Amino acid sequence: MRRRVILLAAVVAAVVGVVAFGAVQASASGAPIVIPYAKTCDETVGHCVGTAGDGGALEMQVTSFRVTGNAAQLTLTEWITVGDISFTAELSGHVSPAGFIVMNGTVTEGSFAGAQVHQRSNLVGVDGTTTAWTGELRLMPASA
Length: 144
Fold this sequence. Notes:
By secondary structure, this protein is mainly beta. It is built from 1 helix and 8 strands; from the N terminus they run H-E-E-E-E-E-E-E-E. It has one helix at residues 2-19, and strands at 33-42, 47-52, 56-68, 71-82, 85-95, 100-110, 116-127, 130-140. An 8-stranded antiparallel barrel has the order 1-2-3-4-5-6-7-8. Strand 6 and strand 7 form a beta hairpin.
């Protein structure tokens, strides 16, 4: 059960990492916007909160979690606000037994609606049923 909680927390952290926004403006060439983040997750409810970019905030809620051997698959919804950028993204991916989460998804509402999102979170701490994660989210704005 504890292993499942750690996996869930890792997943949540990854998602939050994806949503956590580094608030780097996209160039006209379509370069990704990179948003670093740090989040803390309550594994018992699959909920994370943290910081994104420079003074921003992120929140994440796991919507499904399925253990697959030593790893897990998950889906989540993430909300990110950094400066005048604010969006909701739906992500899915895998939690690795090595302590990282990789997620991919799409911005569903707000700034950059329709953009693709890639996120990687790294587990940096465990305290009971709470986990801490750091990572970055890469937002690939849709072509004009």
